Amino acid sequence: MELDAAKMIGAGLAVIALAGVGVGIGNIFSSLVSSIARNPAARGEVFGIGILGFALTEAIALFALLISFLILFT
Amino acid sequence: MASPVEQFKLKPLLPLEVGGLDLSYTTSALWMTITVIGVTAFLTLSMRGGRLVPGRWQSMAEMSYEFIAGMVRENVGNEGRQYFPLVLTLFLFILFGNLMGMIPYPYTFTSQIIVTFAMAFAIFIGVTILGLVKHGLHFFTLFFPSGTPIALAPVLIPIEVISYFVRPVSLSVRLFANMMAGHTMMKVFGGFVVALGIFGVAPMVLIVALTGFEILVAVLQAYVFAMLTCMYLNDAIHLH
After folding, report:
1. Cβ(B137)–Cβ(B77) under 8 Å?
2. A63 vs B173: CB contact, 8 Å cut-off?
């Protein structure tokens, strides 16, 4: 198989990991909404932690994207 | 047509070579200087003639101070108050840098891995040295919390050590990848707008939404960087 074709396939396979990240982010915001619905007064505290969790999970998405770009472009 | 990653190419504005090392003043350095001047101007000029009931600028300066002060006090505790200037500097530098990059022609210096890695590595080394100086060899109990059964040690310690050393990498790659991916995406959609001619209105609407999202990401990434710095400081000062 040619190197370029293999690179394309590899890059495509690498981003399958984004499925897990989508589930994770959905999870975070679902529990954020549930907890605010149960206890609206906790909104301030819970929101900060929720946003932190979102950013950390998003970082995993970017790691997957980074590996994909590394495979594709080097 | 240029490729979308060409926006990250650097131009040396003042070529300077010291002993074989290329230390020229590039666009990246220029924008870092502009960011520093911007942050300093924002904080000092807003607080000029500090009134008890603040005007708009003074409000903003005080709010950003309060926000970070609260974050440091909450996440690091009372001993951590001396690290507040570090966290405030990091937060405002990254925030203003990211936001200035959202303006059409300026350069986003945080989209360079070496810049973010330098910051993250400096924090990592600083926090490790701090922990070692403060606790001596007891610092290594960070990798093996006191309550855990000894049978878990061969599994837990390598995991903890690896995740400790991944910290500077994850901290730097998070910021770098967010900035680079955001700007690349906007460039790609910009290419679509030009290519579609009259129907380019549709990608244009998407770009407007995407720009809004990127501004949110710019602020969020600065917040996350500062928050994680506070958490690493907390780990070093109070071992678990």
Report:
1. no
2. yes
Range of the structural domain that residue A47 is part of: 3-73
Question: What residues in B contact A59, CB-CB < 8 Å?
Answer: 170, 173-174, 177-178
| Chain B interface includes A65 (CB < 8 A) | yes
pLDDT in tens, B2-37: 677 788 888 888 888 888 788 888 899 999 999 999
B129, exposed or middle or buried, with CB in 10 Å at 0-12, 13-18, 19+? exposed
Q: How many CA atoms lie within 13 A of A8 on its CB side?
A: 4
**DSSP class per residue in A20-69:** HHHHHHHHHHHHHHHHHHH-GGGHHHHHHHHHHHHHHHHHHHHHHHHHHH
Residue of A nearest to B220 (CA): A55
Q: What is the pLDDT of residues B96-134, one digit of tens each?
A: 999 999 998 899 999 999 999 999 999 999 999 999 999
What's the CATH code of the domain at A61? 1.20.20.10
B103 in Cβ contact with B22 (< 8 Å): no
> Into how many domains does chain A fold?
1
- State the smallest CA–CA distance between residue B224 and chain A in angstroms: 6
Report the alpha-carbon distance of residue B237 to residue A6 in Å, rounded.
48
Long-range contacts made by residues B206-210, C-beta under 8 angstroms, separation at least 24?
B210/B182, B210/B185, B210/B186
DSSP assignment of B202-220: HHHHHHHHHHHHHHHHHHH
